[in-house]
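Here we describe the complex-level prediction in full. Unlike the single-chain runs in Section 2.1, the two entities below were treated as one system.
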Amino acid sequence: MVETSLAAAMTPLWLSLKVAFFATILSAIFGVALGLYLARSRHRARNILDTLCTLPMVLPPTVLGYYLLVLFGSQGLLGQWLDAAFGVNLVFSLKGAIVAAAIVSFPLVFKPARAAFESVDPRLEQAGRVLGVSEAGVIVRISLPLAWRGIMSGVTLGFVRALGEFGATLMIAGSIPGKTQTLSIAIYEAVQAGRDADAHVMALLISCVCIAMLLLVTWLTPAAHRKGEAHER
Amino acid sequence: MNANERLEAPWCDLHIRKTLRTANRRFELDVAIRAQARRLVLMGPSGIGKTMVLQAIAGLLRPDEGRIRIGGLEFYDSVKGLCLSPQKRRVGYLFQDYALLPHLSVLSNVGFGLHSGVWGRMRKQQKEEAVHWLERFQIAHLAQQRPRALSGGQQQRVALARMAILKPRVLLLDEPFSALDPDLRHAMREEVDGLLTALDIPLLMVTHDEQDRIALNAQALRLSHAEGRTVCLDSL
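The structure predicted for the assembly as a whole is:
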């Protein structure tokens, strides 16, 4: 009984992990870049940008999924462009699930990244510049290593969020068993169909993964450290 | 360049203006320095903007207007719209707290500027050069340590070695000796004196201590308040 449930859970678990993995790569690349920009920018609009990019965290997932459908659907601007340029269709596909999960987890990645970059003592970065190291070198050899733990804790949180993503994924990718039916969607379907044993096993499975990830976040979260004192002018 | 030519052309020729405004105060810096003396100390009360002068020369602070020429090279000129990046100025700037990189070993800190790109790995020859400078400052035995594990004097030697290895045009020191105990202070003054002679470069140093000026045989420039702004009194 449990064995068959476990076997049935493997495909959705694998899909969930795949979606979360690629979604995390996407949100990590864009999240770290945006976090770095927001940490360094003195532009007046930077907090508006921050707020806009936080929206996926507070919008109802169905609303987000709806927007994604409008944008990436066959009638949507981006959807038509993607289809014409690359022959890619996001609706009812695993790629759509990945994009949805990436957007949902994005705020969880860029916000800690911004905080981590802001906590790097700017004088260390200045020291690098005075020593002749290029801006790219300063980022790679000073800012990133010093912000690393904060960034990774955000990326791990983003991964967990992507793993559990339900609403927006269902809206754009649907629930096609073996293709777009991730673990959280499969649990919903199992409960609806009265397959309680399957739901039990899958819920336990995803809970274990989430707890392990949270422990990882706790371990990665940097201890509060004193920032450099105000410099004499 | 012989001694006479040096006397004719000031190595430090700057005139900068910078206004900072915060919610409840306004700070105006207006400093002109033309100096032929190869060793200068910048003195004046706390909060008057001595560090800002060093930062402007290093390229870490952009003045509102003016010009900066160091060793005959134009660093900044607001009329021409010229402002060299810190990377191109090649100055040796000693931060007040040394700004050593906490995630790197002493050896990697000293060799940090030998590579300017994203790839920071030292070649064998560069590593030898870094070790040579560590030996020069008697800290070779600390090569694999992290800066955190070092005493104040050792950290300062690392910071000096990190600048010296790049053969800077000028040494800019921001209150280098104030945090050291008297014995160490004496030793570090001699280190800096030896380094200036060895590299044959000029010095501009911020300090509160008249003894620093005497020990390094330097000429004093005093910043003071006049008409609500900071000006340099006895520039040459």
